[in-house]
Amino acid sequence: MADPVVEFFDGLERAESTVLPVRVNGTARFDLNQDGETDHWYVAIQEGAVSVSHEMRDADVVLNAERGFFERLVTGRANLFASLLRRDFTVEGNLQLLMPIERILPQPPGAHDPRAFAPGRNDRT
């Protein structure tokens, strides 16, 4: 069975460059806890391009979460900001980077891009 966390991070580097605005620059570290161990994922965003590693180094923002919760986040079954308000995870550092992080997370299953329903578009399905 595929690991959704690994698939998410592997897919970040291959994602279209249009996912993030070019002006986005920063680093994020995701500390994922499971069974008393912590797995680190370091994400560097430079002018919209993303690189991922397992480095344990300082980052502009650090998100600390249980791995099971993060699996729900990367499969679109949890919302970043609603989960933050519920304290499902903790975050330290530059909170402004949460907006670009939210953009790289998948939408809930069955969700549609609202731009598809914008006035003047004829491709509604």
Automatic annotation (TrEMBL):
SUPFAM superfamilies: SCP-like (SSF55718). InterPro entries: SCP2_sterol-bd_dom, SCP2_sterol-bd_dom_sf. It comes from the Bacteria. Residues 23-105 form the SCP2 domain. Pfam families: SCP2 (PF02036). Residues 106-125 are annotated as: Disordered. This is SCP2 domain-containing protein.
